[in-house]
Write a structure and sequence with these properties.
The complex is a heterodimer of chains A (about 350) and B (about 130).
Chain A: H1 8-17, E1 20-23, E2 28-33, H2 37-44, E3 58-64, E4 70-80, E5 83-88, H3 93-107, E6 112-115, E7 119-125, H4 129-136, H5 141-144, E8 152-155, E9 158-161, E10 170-176, H6 180-189, E11 193-194, H7 197-206, H8 242-247, E12 252-259, E13 270-273, E14 276-286, E15 291-299, E16 307-312, E17 315-322, E18 327-328, E19 331-332
Parallel strand pairs in A: 1-11
Antiparallel strand pairs in A: 1-7, 2-5, 2-6, 3-4, 4-5, 7-10, 8-9, 9-10, 12-15, 12-17, 13-14, 13-16, 14-15, 16-17, 18-19
Helix pairs in contact in A: 1-7, 4-6
Chain B: E1 8-9, E2 14-18, E3 24-28, H1 30-36, E4 39-43, E5 50-51, E6 56-62, E7 66-70, E8 75-80, H2 83-86, H3 89-93, E9 101-105, H4 117-126
Antiparallel strand pairs in B: 1-2, 2-3, 3-9, 4-6, 5-8, 6-7, 8-9
The chains are: A alpha+beta (about 350), B alpha+beta (about 130).
């Protein structure tokens, strides 16, 4: 996927107002199969796959190491009681596979772990995305019409899921690589605009979605990354990293920042709020808000509404701490005039 | 047209145009805006500022990166294009018309030292793609 196909800003707006598509084939689907698959994933993942009751339903989870550090974030579908599908990030796919297989072997569970390297993946996102997808793939309409958010289904040689990384409605479509060009062309014909990495990053940041490797990595826990909601501690289910998480006092959190001065926030910039120091993890320009936004890791005591300063090159710029997401379903959620 | 013949250029991708009244207009080239992508902020030097050739005098910021602007020649800033505050995208759309600021040159001997269109084109072509 290139950074953009013409104009990154136009691609961004197109997804918020109409439909755009991303070639995300670099991500990897890993199927986990066998009777003990559920038990295995309940131990492997911080979120609890036992919550998935409908066929094809998915949840978002972190995969942790023994110290509670985040190895990756991923989506996992319950295809049927003996079959789950995980979708992991490109940069961590090989590391993840090695880890998953090692854990499986450590537990001695007869579970098959199958990376689906033969698949391509296209994300079609925006308020008109599903409609245009159906125009392009009439054969998939009936089966996918009733899909709930975070639910997927096998149809017409594809796996179609109502998921995404933009904060808009849409589908992510897994398809054998030899058919993806045909799919891409059909989607083009249905009026979906190709969008690149640049727009993908501004869209996900506005939607308050973490980027692994930037907003979190093995050195931080989900709790310090705005992802406590993805860690299911509601039962006494044991999972890798649980003990470490429970034994750690929470000291840092992820917050949103809106830049009030002119400029663009980026990652690794120092943040000062009162007497506290933090650092930006991700930053960019928000085309929907018309100003710069960022995620920042700051002490737990920092609250939304507080004024902050961020060191951008050699100047300290004024910013405001806000809750995130900044935008959802096309609507701005942040008003910098109020707390 | 990517390398207008009537302009002069720097190796930091600014262009310069001699206006009829003795001032010069300064902007960034097609190549510079193409590499930067969609511009979202432009910071110009203030009116009245005396600049030395090569001095950092402003910033253009795109979604992906910030890039410093360097004074192509020495002189006093006599006007600044205010439109760019609200519409920085004009630089992407028409880089050779969306001038950033105008200078009154203090040393005419500096002008011949700038690249001509052919020289700038060679520089751009030599860059890794």
């Amino acid at each position: 996927m290139p950074v953009h196909y013409g104009s990154q800003l136009e691609e961004h707006h197109r997804v918020r107002r109409d439909a755009g598509m991303f070639d995300v084939s670099h991500m990897l689907a890993i199927d986990v199969e066998g009777k003990p698959a559920r038990e295995f994933l309940r131990f492997l993942l911080a979120n609890d796959v036992a919550r998935l009751s409908l066929p094809g339903k998915a949840l978002y989870s972190c995969m942790l190491n023994e110290a509670g550090g985040v190895l990756d974030d991923l989506i996992v579908f319950a295809l049927d009681p003996n079959r789950y599908r995980m979708v992991v990030n490109a940069g961590t796919a090989e590391k993840d596979l090695i880890w998953i297989v090692a854990q499986r072997d450590r537990l001695g569970l007869p579970v098959g772990v199958h990376p689906r390297r033969e698949w391509a993946l296209v994300a079609v996102q925006g308020p008109t995305a599903r409609m245009r997808f159906w125009q392009a793939c009439e054969a998939a309409r009936a089966a996918t019409l009733g899909l709930a958010a975070f639910q997927g289904i096998d149809v017409a040689g594809m796996f179609v899921a109502r998921t995404g990384y933009t904060g808009e409605d849409g589908f992510e479509v897994m398809i054998p690589a030899e058919h993806v060009v045909t799919l891409w062309r059909s989607l083009l014909g249905a009026g979906v605009a190709p969008c690149g990495l640049g727009a993908r990053d501004t869209l996900r940041l506005e939607a308050g979605m973490n980027l692994y490797g930037q907003d979190m990595d093995e050195s931080v826990t989900p709790m310090e990354s705005g992802l406590a909601w993805t860690v299911d501690l509601s039962s006494d289910r044991d999972f890798i990293g649980r003990a470490a998480l429970l034994s750690m006092p929470l000291q840092r959190q992820l917050v949103g920042l809106v830049l009030l001065d002119k400029g663009v926030l980026r990652s690794h910039q120092l943040v000062r709020v009162g007497n506290d120091d933090g650092v930006t993890t991700s930053g960019s320009f928000s085309p929907t808000l018309g100003c710069s936004i960022a995620l920042a890791r700051v002490p737990r005591s920092v609250a939304a509404g507080q004024m902050a300063r961020v060191q951008v090159r050699d100047k300290w710029l004024a910013a405001k701490v806000v809750k995130y997401p900044f935008v959802r379903l096309g609507r701005r959620l942040v008003d910098i005039r109020s707390s | 047209m990517r390398f207008p013949a009537e302009l002069r250029y720097t190796d930091t991708h600014e262009w310069l145009r001699q206006e009829g009244d003795g001032t010069v207009s300064v902007g960034i080239t097609w190549h510079a805006q193409d590499r930067l992508g969609d511009l979202v902020y432009v910071e110009n030097p203030p009116r009245g500022k005396i600049l030395k050739r090569g001095e950092e005098c402003g910033v253009v910021e795109s979604v992906k990166a910030a890039s410093d602007i360097y004074a192509p020649i020495s002189g006093e800033v006599v006007s600044v294009n205010e439109e760019l505050s609200s519409s920085p995208e004009k630089i992407n759309q028409q880089p050779y018309e969306a001038w950033m600021f105008r200078l009154k040159p203090s040393d005419p001997a500096e002008l011949p030292a700038l690249l001509d269109a052919a020289g700038y084109e060679r520089l751009v072509e030599a860059e890794p793609h």
